[in-house]
Amino acid sequence: MLVIFLPGLSYGPLQVRLADALLAIVPLLGLAGVFGHTLGVFVANLFSPAGPIDLLNTIPSFMMAFIVYYVYTKTNNDFTVIASCTAYSTVLGITVGWMLSFLYGYPLLITIAYVILGNFIASVLLGWPLFKFLKRTGVLHKWLPK
Known about the structure:
With 146 residues, this protein is mostly helical. 73% of the residues lie in helices and 0% in strands.
């Protein structure tokens, strides 16, 4: 819902979707986090000014959210969250950047760089501290089934 209520931050070449900070906690939520993130992206993109084409970006979002989850579960290394969220930012930067360039005539490489930057700010710079806090405090374990 943050994406919908903060459209100036959520759509366009420099999009810092605050909800993407939740990507970093996908490993703590498990597959439910992967599907929740994917559903959130789908719903947010329903309201995209780019129109229905933006719904296609749900596919790489799902794949990369699964990778964030999978890599962490295989390594159990907190720093893989930074690496996989950075990979997420790069992949989505390419797909969303290409779409924005195609639709609006923005310069491709600059647009990709802006989308990567915005996504990195949300998923790594905001998400990583959230991941560490939730993991350290165990807050999620109080609400999630064991």
